[in-house]
Amino acid sequence: MRDGQRQTTALHIAGEMCDLHSVVQPRASWSITALTEASVLFVQHKHLWEAALRHPNLAIAFWRDGMAQAAILAKWVGNLGRKSAAARVAHLVCEMGLRIESAGLGARTRFELPMTQDQLADAVGVTNIHANRVLQGLRKDGILNFQRPHVEVGDWTALATLAEFEPDFLQLRTGGLT
Q1: What is the spatial order of strands in the sheet that 150-153 belongs to?
Q2: HEC string of the chain?
Q3: Are 89 and 74 in contact (CB under 8 A)?
Q4: Please, what's the b/e burial string for 35-56 (b: 16 or more CB within 10 A of its CB; e: otherwise)?
Q5: pLDDT tens over the chain, length 178 residues
Q6: Is the domain covering 85-169 a CATH 1.10.10.10 domain?
Q7: Rounded Cα gap, residues 109 and 155, in angstroms
Q8: What are the structural domain ranges in the chain?
Q9: CA distances (Å), 62 to each of 23, 43, 47, 100, 150, in order?
Q10: Which of 1, 9, 17 is CA-nearest to residue 79?
């Protein structure tokens, strides 16, 4: 924002294509920031267009990726507008846990999430102080322990229940057009 504040609207993990939608909307009104040291591959839009035109299955994969990102964004907007801070944190942890597990980078109940408490607060739309209170409460209840960068979920069922987490929006199924 102009006053220096941030609102995180997406998180990506290793191997994901970030900003794929810029192929059809190249003039960005947002920015991308790495939370950790990262290796980044820039692919020119024209090369992605050409590859998609030559390989229809790749075009479908790009489309599916865009739809998954749109579904995640829709969930984040709904969470910001209607859920408690604890439910927002729980939902973010459930989402990232499943995405990381699906990518083979950890288990949903034990993974690395290299976010500071301040960055977590930005992602769920609360102050750093409120994020701290939420994390302390979840730790006290034995549901979640977050000590950057390590996340350990003590009770997945309780966390998912608090978040009202239903994973279908992540579209983690692989293969065909199902």
Answers
A1: 110-112, 150-153, 144-147
A2: CCCCCCCCCCCCCCCCCCCHHHHCCCCCCCCCCCCCCCCCCCCCHHHHHHHHHHCHHHHHHHHHHHHHHHHHHHHHHHHHHHCCHHHHHHHHHHHHHHHHHHCCCCECCEEECCCCHHHHHHHHCCCHHHHHHHHHHHHHCCCEEEECCEEEECCHHHHHHHHCCCHHHHCCCCCCCC
A3: no
A4: eeeeeeeeeeeeebeeebeeee
A5: 788 788 888 999 988 888 888 888 877 777 888 888 888 888 999 999 999 999 999 999 999 998 999 999 999 999 999 999 999 999 999 999 999 999 999 999 999 999 999 999 999 999 999 999 999 999 999 999 999 999 999 999 999 999 999 999 998 865 444 3
A6: yes
A7: 8
A8: 44-82, 85-169
A9: 10, 14, 13, 20, 31
A10: 9
Residue type, 102: S
The type of residue at 21 is H
Tokens of 60: 């479908």
Tokens of 63: 């489309």
Token output for 107: 């288990």
